[in-house]
Amino acid sequence: MSVTVRTDRDSGVAVVTLDRPARHNAIDLDMAGRLADVWAEFRFDETVRAVVLTGAGERAFCTGIDRSAASDVPQPTSPYSVDDPLHSVGPKAGDLWKPVITAVNGMACGGAFYLIGESEFVIADEHAEFFDPHTTYGMVSAYESMLLAQRMPPGEVARMALMGTAERISARRAYETGLVSEVTAKGGALEAAVRCAETIAGYPAEAVQGTVRAVWAAREATRAPAYALAPHLIALGNLPPDEQAGLFGRRDGKGHRVR
């Protein structure tokens, strides 16, 4: 199972785990579909009042889209249309307005920001690190940068997106820039996130969900027009897939080969 769900009926908290640790929890088409199904199921499950999202293993929360998934999705030739396999992986894309807290353990990069960007807040282990590899591989960082720009100062988003795999942001720096709300000792992010979720789940659900929706209403004013532009930027700015593949084997400034 690419996504596992554990629900504590007493506390009202569901823990959703990206469960492909051998692939650094990269999102393939099966995982993308399963995530969309999970958010849809939670909409109708009154026993779930708050959600924690995390990744299996210690090395990565999520390293974005699995390259096999990217190659399996045919793209239209028109620059006005892009089929994005990650477009529906986030809880807000699934019209879920129950609070989602993300616990980041290890690497979070690229398409992971679809999930991080659509959560209420983020708690990270001290060894977590964040980066966006798009430009390194000849791809436009569009949706990812737009989501990050709603959490971090634009200059910090620009630096992360433009530096690609050459630079990684530490959990502490992510906290300083507003991407992360709490940094824990190694292995402590999930426990801290569950503790927060249990507190929130203990409050009246209508008030909690209304507050989540209020915060997102303020963000939608800028996100919606940005998202409308994203497909065009991707279609016009991405290198052809074969040229991307040629860059994909190149290592970053620290000698890492990153998906």
Automatic annotation (TrEMBL):
Gene3D superfamilies: 2-enoyl-CoA Hydratase, Chain A, domain 1 (3.90.226.10). It holds the Pfam family ECH_1. InterPro entries: ClpP/crotonase-like_dom_sf, Enoyl-CoA_hydra/iso. GO terms for molecular function: isomerase activity. It comes from the Bacteria. Transmembrane segments: none annotated. The keyword Aminoacyl-tRNA synthetase does not apply. Keywords: Isomerase. SUPFAM superfamilies: ClpP/crotonase. Belongs to the enoyl-CoA hydratase/isomerase family. This is Enoyl-CoA hydratase/isomerase family protein.
